[in-house]
Amino acid sequence: MISVIIPAYNASSRIALCLESVIAQNYDDIEIILVDDASCDDTGKIARGILSASCRNYTLITHGHNEGVSSARNTGLYASHGKYICFVDADDVLRENFVSCLHAVISKGECDIAFCGLTDRFTDGRNDAAMTFTHGLSRGCKGENVIMNDSVPPFMCCMYSSDFLNEYGLKFHDGCSSGEDVEFQMMAFCMAGRVSFSDECPYIYMHHSEMGSLRDNDTREKRILRYEHNTQAQIRTAEYLITHSDSQRVKELAGKILMPQNVIRRLNLAAMKNDRAEYDSIRKSESAMKILRRSLCLYTLRKKSEVFMKALMIMTMPGIYYRMRAE
């Protein structure tokens, strides 16, 4: 059985299309787990009507209060029974072979993770655009190869072995509203011993005016909060890779790029809040400056020149950098 987990919050205008596409999958043994994160609209009512009329095995869970998308996904994980796990966002849709495509890959290769490409679909009339994440990778590679290849796919394009997720205690960080997806992916690929993929693009990522990424950026306060959550997620990610990876390549990436990037983001956040005292406190911290100095090397310049240049500017022209980042 494959568990398809769908977190939903105020998704009444789009949940029907999402659920109908999951129900229409050409793979038989699916359990659909929809977690209604205390929606204020008819999301739960619409979902129950569609699911109860289908022939699919389903579970509908309703949170008593809004806990955020990370907690909703984790609730789905805890309730799942499948040998494999997929996540679908409530405003996206699937081609009918999404589940069967990934199942064929993950079961054939006895993998921890299988992934596919995605199709960007726009409601403003632009043409669909397909995107794959397989360049430079070989089937059956270790997860670290995906990380080092700068081709980590979105988590929605993945199927995970539930045994693998349970073995390493992998879940989303509760309360995190931005960057939680990348954090989860980096942890998963850090620990994955075997990964494979399909070149097909059966996940359809919908771009529309009600997207959460647009809704949660419509005020300065929301933008700062998302940036702060994203920064915290990146800090946890770098620390996880350094602590848990057995690959020196991954540790070098974390130490010379991700950790300096995190210091830069903390400085950016202080500037965005117009908090010069916090900015100067971070900049004068010897530990923070030691991390930034690590990025001033040929490795970072070649692999992530943006981090190199920002670190150099912070260390040589801190006042100018602050003014550039302040809102």
Overview of the structural elements:
With 327 residues, the protein is α/β, with parallel strands linked by helices. It folds into 2 domains: 2-211, Spore Coat Polysaccharide Biosynthesis Protein SpsA, Chain A, CATH 3.90.550.10; 220-325, no CATH class. 50% of the residues lie in helices and 15% in strands. The strands form 2 sheets. A 7-stranded mixed β-sheet has the order 3-2-1-4-9-6-10, with helices on both faces. Strand 7 and strand 8 (129-131) form a beta hairpin. Helix 10 packs across helix 14. The longest helix has 25 residues, at 220-244. The mean pLDDT is 94.
Rg is 21 Å
Taken as a percent bin, the fraction of beta residues is: 5-15%
Helix content: 40-55%
Assign the CATH architecture of the largest domain.
Alpha-Beta Complex
- The class by helix and strand makeup works out as alpha/beta
Strand order of the largest sheet: 3-2-1-4-9-6-10
Please outline the helices and strands.
Elements: E1 2-8, H1 15-23, E2 30-36, H2 43-53, E3 57-62, H3 69-79, E4 84-87, E5 93-94, H4 98-108, E6 113-115, E7 118-122, E8 129-131, H5 143-148, E9 158-161, H6 162-167, H7 180-191, E10 195-197, E11 203-207, H8 212-215, H9 220-244, H10 248-272, H11 276-283, H12 286-294, H13 298-303, H14 305-316, H15 318-325
Parallel strand pairs: 1-2, 1-4, 2-3, 6-10, 7-11
Antiparallel strand pairs: 4-9, 5-11, 6-9, 7-8
Helix pairs in contact: 1-2, 7-9, 9-10, 10-11, 10-12, 10-14, 14-15
